[in-house]
Amino acid sequence: MSRSAAAIEARAGDGTAALVGYLPVGFPDVETSVRAARTLVDAGADVIELGLPYSDPGMDGEVIQHAVQTALDTGTRTADVLRAVEQVAETGAAVLVMTYFNPVHRYGVDRFARDLAAAGGAGLITPDLIPDEAGEWISAAEEHDLDRVFLVAPSSTDERLAMTARACRGFVYAASTMGVTGARASVDGAAQELVARTRAADDRHHVCVGLGVSTGGQAAEIAGYADGVIVGSAFVRALAGAAGDTEAGLRELHSLAAEIAAGAHSGGTEGEAR
Amino acid sequence: MTSSPSARPLEATPGPYFGDFGGRFVPEALIAALDDLTAAWEELRVDPDYLAEMDQLHRTYTGRPSPITEVPRFAAHGAEGVRILLKREDLNHTGSHKINNVLGQALLTRKIGKKRVIAETGAGQHGVATATAAALLGLECTVYMGAEDVQRQALNVARMRLLGTEVIPVTTGSRTLKDAINEAFRDWVTNVETTNYVFGTAAGPHPFPAMVRDLQRIIGDEARAQVLDLTGALPDAVLACVGGGSNAIGIFNAFLDDDVRLIGLEAAGDGVETGRHASSITGGDPGVLHGARTFVLQDDDGQTRESHSISAGLDYPGVGPEHSWLSQLGRAEYQPVTDAEAMEAFRVLCRTEGIIPAIESAHALAGALRLSRELGAAGVPSGHEPVLLVNLSGRGDKDVETAAKWFDMLPQHESENLSEEGADV
């Protein structure tokens, strides 16, 4: 059974949307990043994405890129990420790892899947691994009962939406806009259309919207048409906001996460979620 | 998926896979653009109007065919009885083979109706070529260049700006070519509706490795005919430097199904054993970088390791996937050449033949001298003079400052006039 799907389903049953929160492991240090992820859970996040830092994060904007570089500079390793998964999964939240493919490739795809499952992880989100190239990972995920979350984009054709959704387990990650990660003043109108097109292509999966979400109002708006709201850069920025003051950063993170969770869990401003 | 060494023909393998290598490891948002490019390229590569326009540009703008030059005084530094021929891509407009690829991709950009091109550049040669083609075809152009390389190659930055291109220094990561590619991909994913990415080498996601290879194959086609014409036979070996590997794959491709040794020379910096090098095949492992599965310099966690080379153009921790495949098949050999070996070959060519090569190309020249000595030591059979064909991929104008510092040829007061960080040797 997919743990991320179950967490999203619990919200969908109430007619609201789930909050999926991202933070990179190792920013500002491994211990604080684990505390920060637990803070997200306390504040109401339903699914946690833990970022595995990578040297060449081609799909990330400035905020996450900087955080990830800091994590690498301070020596964060793949083994630290697996330990962080274990510590955050203890909260009962579904914990996915978000990673570019090379660190998994290097670790050994099957070995990574085995160790991730053993740590209590729910699965992987892979921003640079499309299903076309993911045969080895999909087999390993099957073997170790892990979720596999692939992305769809406004530029995806209907055929690719159907193919990608078929390959997913857990949920489908709808990238709201053409671009990289980073908080935006408004979430692109293309997001709603993309969610509708994805559902039309394959209606078996929950569809969550990410890229650009940073406020409770945006979360409430997305909750009106999607099953989940994915937030990353805004949380990283909040955590980093109180430079050098860990406790203040965690308080700021809690406050923002609670606001966005309230928006996501409000059931939306434009009618019921599915 | 893996091809056997006996599978022929090897030339013009269409991609997206070259044995275990290649593919498209990119965000989904780029797939539509890559599909569009693939379809447009499949159509254009056999389109008579496009081929005629490319031919016209090559003849009247680039200066093709580039000649081959026999260099007996240089060859004398190898072994007696071994002939060395240079394919003179250094004589192309903008100073290197890069223009072959860029003109093709710029015309493609116009064909698919986009008005803006972006590119990455290391030494600046691909950036200058792209800026040139953009000016020629009236396209808007932005070039990403690592901040470190902006310092090392200030002259090429000025050239790009004179040609009307915006140059954006990239300050993330190692501040070199690898990071410029990341930044260009970020721009592309954001602006893909209006913008085409003119990729500089035969690496990256499909269709770039095959498309860039096809556009650079003109080097091999010309050289093959020219060597046959001059010597009556195919060369014994073809040598070219390999960073990303576009000049090498361009010349190799025309000989892949012949009985000719193909040798790629990788930048070994201080020596592969020191860890300070850019020899992705010799000193790396299979991985995924910049959209393709290929050999990559990486640590135990799969983080990209920084590369090191005196040559900014070879200073890249990955390599085109077709080279990884040819190495795996044993069809091409890849050998490391240190900074010191390359600079010695650079010096010899300058002094013996009056040609100042790009430091990139000097790696191939060093490989030729090494092979020549090996052949000489093994005993050249009587009646057969081995012929080594070296791709001189670019000229050394951009490298004069680096070379002058390396050889300590500038008096102190003149040296002070150069920027303090001008040439990082």
Can you walk through the features of this model?
The complex is a heterodimer of chains A (274) and B (425). Chain A is an alpha/beta fold. Chain A is built from twelve helices and nine strands. Chain A has one domain (3-265): Alpha-Beta Barrel (TIM Barrel). Chain A starts with a helix and ends in a 10-residue tail after the last helix. Chain B has two domains: 25-62 and 98-208, Rossmann fold (3-Layer(aba) Sandwich); 68-95 and 217-407, Rossmann fold (3-Layer(aba) Sandwich), CATH 3.40.50. In chain B, 43% of the residues lie in helices and 18% in strands. Chain B has 16 helices and 15 strands. Chain B has helices spanning 31-44, 48-62, 72-75, 98-111, 125-137, 147-152, 154-162, 177-191, 208-231, 246-253, 280-283, 321-329, 339-353, 359-378, 400-406, 412-415, and strands spanning 17-18, 21-22, 68-70, 83-88, 116-121, 140-146, 166-170, 195-197, 237-242, 261-271, 276-278, 285-289, 292-296, 332-338, 387-392. In chain B, the strands form four sheets. In chain B, strands 3, 4, 9, 10, 11, 14 and 15 form a seven-stranded mixed beta sheet that branches. Chain B is globular. The N and C termini of chain B lie far apart (42 Å). Chains A and B meet through helix 3, helix 5 and strand 6 of A and helix 1, helix 8 and strand 12 of B.
